[in-house]
Amino acid sequence: MSKFGQTVRGYFWWTYPRGGVHYDVMVTLILAFIFLAPIWINFRDKPVVRSPHQSEVVVQQEGDGFLYKVDASAVKPGTDTEVREALLHIIEPIAGYVTVDRIQAVQDSHHNIVAYKVWVHR
Asked: Who wins on pLDDT, 77 or 45?
């Protein structure tokens, strides 16, 4: 076996003694992988962004999906798309990734929106 082959075999089987040059090279390569791999490899393990304030969310199972009732004070008024995104922003930390089937605004006697009913499934 060639000298290069013996060197590679020694790296693979970790046969070099501690404190030697080859040992230091192996440790350096491992540390470089640990610290530099997240820059080049997308592990898709980003933390879920939490809602900036606490909001009351009531969850009920309904059929094969779930019904979430979210307090309207937690949702900034806007277009249907903005409201949908805000509701997903509140629900996803609780339920994980879900798909919204339907949204219904709950109004009081003065026609003010007090809550949203959101039907979702996984």
From this structure: 77
- Per-residue pLDDT tens over the stretch 66-79: 899 999 888 888 88
Distance CA 4, CA 92 (A): 53
Q: Provide DSSP, 12-36.
A: HHT-SPTTSHHHHHHHHHHHHHHHH
Question: What's the pLDDT tens digit per position in 92-117?
Answer: 888 888 888 999 999 999 999 999 99
DSSP state of 47: P
How is the chain split into domains, by residue range? Answer: 3-40, 57-121
What angle in degrees, to the nearest 10, is found between the helix axes of 3-13 and 21-40? 70
91 vs 55: CA distance, rounded Å: 10
First to last CA, the chain: 56
CA distance 83 to 41: 34
Q: SS3 of 54, please?
A: coil
